[in-house]
Protein backbone atom coordinates (compact mmCIF):
# COMPACT_ATOMS: atom_id res chain seq x y z
CA UNK A 1 0.00 0.00 0.00
CA UNK A 2 1.45 3.37 -1.04
CA UNK A 3 1.71 6.39 1.25
CA UNK A 4 -1.13 8.05 -0.66
CA UNK A 5 -3.37 5.01 -0.22
CA UNK A 6 -2.50 4.95 3.49
CA UNK A 7 -3.37 8.64 3.84
CA UNK A 8 -6.69 8.06 2.07
CA UNK A 9 -7.50 5.13 4.34
CA UNK A 10 -6.72 7.18 7.46
CA UNK A 11 -8.74 10.13 6.16
CA UNK A 12 -11.71 7.85 5.41
CA UNK A 13 -11.67 6.60 9.00
CA UNK A 14 -11.50 10.15 10.38
CA UNK A 15 -14.28 11.34 8.07
CA UNK A 16 -16.47 8.41 9.13
CA UNK A 17 -15.87 9.21 12.81
CA UNK A 18 -17.10 12.82 12.41
CA UNK A 19 -20.17 11.72 10.41
CA UNK A 20 -19.12 13.13 7.07
CA UNK A 21 -20.83 10.29 5.17
CA UNK A 22 -24.42 11.37 5.87
CA UNK A 23 -26.23 13.12 3.03
CA UNK A 24 -29.88 14.06 2.66
CA UNK A 25 -32.84 11.87 1.62
CA UNK A 26 -32.77 10.89 -2.05
CA UNK A 27 -35.67 13.23 -2.84
CA UNK A 28 -33.47 16.24 -1.98
CA UNK A 29 -30.43 15.15 -3.99
CA UNK A 30 -29.20 17.44 -6.75
CA UNK A 31 -28.31 15.51 -9.93
CA UNK A 32 -24.75 16.90 -9.97
CA UNK A 33 -23.86 15.09 -6.71
CA UNK A 34 -24.97 11.64 -7.88
CA UNK A 35 -21.40 10.51 -8.65
CA UNK A 36 -20.37 11.06 -5.01
CA UNK A 37 -23.12 8.84 -3.55
CA UNK A 38 -22.16 5.35 -2.34
CA UNK A 39 -25.60 4.09 -1.36
CA UNK A 40 -28.73 4.62 0.74
CA UNK A 41 -29.43 3.67 4.34
CA UNK A 42 -32.74 4.32 6.11
CA UNK A 43 -33.74 6.60 3.22
CA UNK A 44 -30.60 8.73 3.79
CA UNK A 45 -27.97 8.81 1.07
CA UNK A 46 -24.40 7.93 2.05
CA UNK A 47 -21.35 9.60 0.52
CA UNK A 48 -18.46 7.56 -0.85
CA UNK A 49 -15.82 8.66 1.67
CA UNK A 50 -12.94 7.51 -0.52
CA UNK A 51 -14.00 10.12 -3.07
CA UNK A 52 -14.43 12.67 -0.28
CA UNK A 53 -10.94 11.96 1.08
CA UNK A 54 -9.40 12.24 -2.39
CA UNK A 55 -11.26 15.49 -3.07
CA UNK A 56 -10.13 16.92 0.28
CA UNK A 57 -6.50 16.03 -0.45
CA UNK A 58 -6.72 17.73 -3.84
CA UNK A 59 -8.28 20.84 -2.30
CA UNK A 60 -5.60 21.01 0.41
CA UNK A 61 -2.82 20.66 -2.18
CA UNK A 62 -4.34 23.47 -4.25
CA UNK A 63 -4.70 25.77 -1.22
CA UNK A 64 -1.15 25.07 -0.03
CA UNK A 65 0.35 25.81 -3.45
CA UNK A 66 -1.75 28.94 -3.82
CA UNK A 67 -0.75 30.22 -0.37
CA UNK A 68 2.92 29.60 -1.25
CA UNK A 69 2.58 32.23 -3.99
CA UNK A 70 1.50 34.86 -1.46
CA UNK A 71 -2.19 34.88 -2.35
CA UNK A 72 -4.94 34.94 0.27
CA UNK A 73 -7.70 32.36 0.65
CA UNK A 74 -11.00 33.66 2.00
CA UNK A 75 -12.92 31.31 4.34
CA UNK A 76 -16.71 31.77 4.30
CA UNK A 77 -19.27 30.13 6.56
CA UNK A 78 -22.29 32.07 7.73
CA UNK A 79 -24.54 29.19 8.80
CA UNK A 80 -24.75 28.56 12.53
CA UNK A 81 -22.97 25.19 12.39
CA UNK A 82 -19.97 26.67 10.56
CA UNK A 83 -19.32 30.03 12.25
CA UNK A 84 -17.08 28.85 15.11
CA UNK A 85 -15.10 26.44 12.94
CA UNK A 86 -14.50 29.07 10.25
CA UNK A 87 -13.40 31.84 12.61
CA UNK A 88 -11.21 29.63 14.82
CA UNK A 89 -9.38 27.89 11.95
CA UNK A 90 -8.91 31.08 9.91
CA UNK A 91 -7.55 33.06 12.86
CA UNK A 92 -5.02 30.33 13.67
CA UNK A 93 -3.95 30.16 10.01
CA UNK A 94 -3.81 33.93 9.60
CA UNK A 95 -6.41 33.85 6.81
CA UNK A 96 -9.27 36.30 6.13
CA UNK A 97 -12.76 35.01 6.87
CA UNK A 98 -16.48 35.81 6.95
CA UNK A 99 -18.20 33.93 9.78
CA UNK A 100 -21.55 35.67 9.65
CA UNK A 101 -23.84 37.38 7.19
CA UNK A 102 -22.19 37.94 3.83
CA UNK A 103 -22.26 41.63 2.95
CA UNK A 104 -23.30 41.96 -0.69
CA UNK A 105 -20.49 43.44 -2.76
CA UNK A 106 -17.68 42.21 -0.52
CA UNK A 107 -15.90 40.99 -3.65
CA UNK A 108 -17.80 42.51 -6.58
CA UNK A 109 -17.59 45.99 -5.02
CA UNK A 110 -14.30 45.40 -3.24
CA UNK A 111 -12.89 48.95 -3.48
CA UNK A 112 -15.89 50.42 -1.64
CA UNK A 113 -15.93 47.67 0.98
CA UNK A 114 -12.19 48.08 1.52
CA UNK A 115 -12.73 51.75 2.36
CA UNK A 116 -15.03 50.64 5.19
CA UNK A 117 -12.32 48.24 6.37
CA UNK A 118 -9.77 51.07 6.33
CA UNK A 119 -12.22 53.16 8.35
CA UNK A 120 -12.41 50.35 10.91
CA UNK A 121 -8.62 50.09 11.08
CA UNK A 122 -8.21 53.87 11.48
CA UNK A 123 -10.77 54.20 14.28
CA UNK A 124 -9.43 51.11 16.08
CA UNK A 125 -5.87 52.46 15.87
CA UNK A 126 -6.91 55.88 17.19
CA UNK A 127 -8.76 54.28 20.09
CA UNK A 128 -5.73 52.15 21.01
CA UNK A 129 -3.43 55.17 20.90
CA UNK A 130 -5.81 57.21 23.05
CA UNK A 131 -6.27 59.98 20.49
CA UNK A 132 -10.07 59.81 20.85
CA UNK A 133 -9.86 61.64 24.16
CA UNK A 134 -10.23 64.91 22.24
CA UNK A 135 -13.89 64.02 21.67
CA UNK A 136 -16.70 64.36 24.19
CA UNK A 137 -17.95 61.36 26.12
CA UNK A 138 -21.03 61.10 23.89
CA UNK A 139 -18.94 61.29 20.72
CA UNK A 140 -16.59 58.57 21.99
CA UNK A 141 -19.60 56.37 22.73
CA UNK A 142 -20.86 56.86 19.18
CA UNK A 143 -17.41 56.02 17.78
CA UNK A 144 -17.25 52.85 19.92
CA UNK A 145 -20.60 51.77 18.51
CA UNK A 146 -19.38 52.45 14.99
CA UNK A 147 -16.23 50.38 15.59
CA UNK A 148 -18.31 47.51 16.97
CA UNK A 149 -20.68 47.58 14.00
CA UNK A 150 -17.84 47.71 11.46
CA UNK A 151 -15.97 44.93 13.27
CA UNK A 152 -19.03 42.67 13.18
CA UNK A 153 -19.35 43.23 9.43
CA UNK A 154 -15.73 43.41 8.29
CA UNK A 155 -13.52 42.33 11.19
CA UNK A 156 -12.61 39.03 9.56
CA UNK A 157 -11.33 40.65 6.35
CA UNK A 158 -9.02 43.22 7.98
CA UNK A 159 -6.01 41.55 6.31
CA UNK A 160 -7.63 41.31 2.88
CA UNK A 161 -6.05 44.20 0.95
CA UNK A 162 -6.60 42.52 -2.45
CA UNK A 163 -9.14 40.16 -3.96
CA UNK A 164 -8.49 36.61 -2.70
CA UNK A 165 -6.86 33.96 -4.83
CA UNK A 166 -9.54 31.45 -3.84
CA UNK A 167 -12.56 31.04 -1.59
CA UNK A 168 -13.50 28.21 0.78
CA UNK A 169 -17.28 27.94 1.30
CA UNK A 170 -19.31 25.84 3.70
CA UNK A 171 -22.56 24.98 1.91
CA UNK A 172 -22.65 26.80 -1.46
CA UNK A 173 -26.43 26.45 -1.40
CA UNK A 174 -26.55 28.67 1.70
CA UNK A 175 -23.84 31.11 0.50
CA UNK A 176 -25.45 31.88 -2.85
CA UNK A 177 -24.37 35.54 -2.98
CA UNK A 178 -20.75 34.85 -2.03
CA UNK A 179 -20.64 32.06 -4.60
CA UNK A 180 -22.11 34.27 -7.33
CA UNK A 181 -19.58 37.05 -6.68
CA UNK A 182 -16.66 34.61 -6.77
CA UNK A 183 -17.90 33.09 -10.04
CA UNK A 184 -18.37 36.54 -11.58
CA UNK A 185 -14.75 37.42 -10.75
CA UNK A 186 -13.47 33.95 -11.76
CA UNK A 187 -12.19 33.21 -8.26
CA UNK A 188 -11.72 29.44 -7.67
CA UNK A 189 -14.13 27.95 -5.13
CA UNK A 190 -13.50 25.08 -2.70
CA UNK A 191 -16.84 24.03 -1.25
CA UNK A 192 -18.05 21.63 1.42
CA UNK A 193 -21.16 20.42 -0.38
CA UNK A 194 -24.00 18.17 0.75
CA UNK A 195 -26.13 16.11 -1.63
CA UNK A 196 -28.63 18.97 -2.19
CA UNK A 197 -26.02 21.35 -3.67
CA UNK A 198 -25.54 22.25 -7.32
CA UNK A 199 -21.79 21.73 -7.74
CA UNK A 200 -21.44 22.41 -11.47
CA UNK A 201 -19.46 25.64 -11.03
CA UNK A 202 -17.41 24.57 -7.99
CA UNK A 203 -13.68 24.22 -8.72
CA UNK A 204 -12.97 21.77 -5.89
CA UNK A 205 -15.98 19.91 -4.48
CA UNK A 206 -15.58 18.26 -1.07
CA UNK A 207 -18.74 16.11 -0.84
CA UNK A 208 -19.70 15.67 2.80
CA UNK A 209 -22.23 16.41 5.51
CA UNK A 210 -22.15 20.22 5.58
CA UNK A 211 -24.70 20.34 8.41
CA UNK A 212 -22.46 18.56 10.93
CA UNK A 213 -20.31 20.69 13.23
CA UNK A 214 -17.81 17.83 13.59
CA UNK A 215 -17.47 17.38 9.82
CA UNK A 216 -17.16 21.10 9.13
CA UNK A 217 -14.52 21.49 11.85
CA UNK A 218 -12.48 18.56 10.55
CA UNK A 219 -12.51 19.62 6.89
CA UNK A 220 -11.95 23.33 7.54
CA UNK A 221 -9.07 22.56 9.93
CA UNK A 222 -7.41 20.42 7.24
CA UNK A 223 -7.72 23.17 4.64
CA UNK A 224 -6.60 25.89 7.08
CA UNK A 225 -3.50 23.87 8.01
CA UNK A 226 -2.67 23.52 4.31
CA UNK A 227 -3.02 27.29 3.94
CA UNK A 228 -0.75 27.88 6.95
CA UNK A 229 1.87 25.47 5.60
CA UNK A 230 1.86 27.15 2.21
CA UNK A 231 2.08 30.63 3.72
CA UNK A 232 5.33 29.70 5.44
CA UNK A 233 6.90 28.99 2.05
CA UNK A 234 6.14 32.42 0.60
CA UNK A 235 9.29 34.09 -0.79
CA UNK A 236 9.78 37.65 0.39
CA UNK A 237 9.29 39.07 -3.12
CA UNK A 238 6.09 37.07 -3.65
CA UNK A 239 4.29 38.49 -0.63
CA UNK A 240 1.46 40.87 -1.46
CA UNK A 241 2.67 44.48 -1.11
CA UNK A 242 1.05 46.58 1.56
CA UNK A 243 -0.75 49.73 0.51
CA UNK A 244 1.50 52.70 1.04
CA UNK A 245 -0.33 55.86 2.12
CA UNK A 246 0.31 58.84 -0.12
CA UNK A 247 1.48 62.00 1.60
CA UNK A 248 -0.67 65.09 0.89
CA UNK A 249 2.17 66.80 -1.05
CA UNK A 250 2.71 63.70 -3.20
CA UNK A 251 -0.88 63.37 -4.39
CA UNK A 252 -1.36 64.36 -8.03
CA UNK A 253 -3.37 67.50 -8.61
CA UNK A 254 -6.81 67.16 -10.18
CA UNK A 255 -7.07 68.05 -13.85
CA UNK A 256 -7.84 71.76 -14.16
CA UNK A 257 -6.96 72.47 -10.54
CA UNK A 258 -5.02 75.63 -9.89
CA UNK A 259 -1.54 75.03 -8.55
CA UNK A 260 -0.43 77.53 -5.93
CA UNK A 261 2.76 79.35 -6.96
CA UNK A 262 5.91 78.73 -5.03
CA UNK A 263 7.11 82.01 -3.50
CA UNK A 264 10.79 82.61 -3.11
CA UNK A 265 11.76 84.93 -0.29
CA UNK A 266 13.57 88.07 -1.49
CA UNK A 267 16.96 88.80 -0.09
Question: Which characteristics define this entry?
Answer:
single chain; 267 residues; alpha/beta; 8 strands; disordered C terminus
What does it look like?
The protein is α/β, with parallel strands linked by helices. The chain is built from 7 helices and 8 strands; from the N terminus they run αβββαβαβααβαββα. The strands form 2 sheets. The chain has a 5-stranded parallel beta sheet, sandwiched between helices. The chain is elongated, with a radius of gyration of 23 Å.
What's a concise summary of this model?
By secondary structure, the protein is α/β, with parallel strands linked by helices.
Annotate the secondary structure layout.
Elements: H1 3-17, E1 22-25, E2 37-41, E3 44-47, H2 49-67, E4 73-76, H3 80-93, E5 97-98, H4 110-129, H5 137-154, E6 166-170, H6 176-184, E7 189-193, E8 204-207, H7 213-231
Parallel strand pairs: 4-5, 4-6, 6-7, 7-8
Antiparallel strand pairs: 1-3, 2-3
Helix pairs in contact: 1-2, 2-7, 3-7, 4-5
Shape, please? elongated
Q: What structural class do you assign from the helix and strand content?
A: alpha/beta
Give Rg in angstroms: 23 Å
What does the oligomeric state look like here? single chain
**Portion in strands:** 5-15%
- What order do the helices and strands follow? HEEEHEHEHHEHEEH
Mean pLDDT: 87
Unreliable stretches, pLDDT < 50, 5 or more residues?
Answer: 241-267
Amino acid sequence: MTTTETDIKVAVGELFTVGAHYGYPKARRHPTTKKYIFGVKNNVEIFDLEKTAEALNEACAFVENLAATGKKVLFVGGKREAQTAISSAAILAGAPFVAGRWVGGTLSNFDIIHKRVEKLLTLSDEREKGTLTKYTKKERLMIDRQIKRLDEMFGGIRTLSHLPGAMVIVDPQFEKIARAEALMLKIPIIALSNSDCDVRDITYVVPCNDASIGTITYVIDRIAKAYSTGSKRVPAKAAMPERKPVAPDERPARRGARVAPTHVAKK
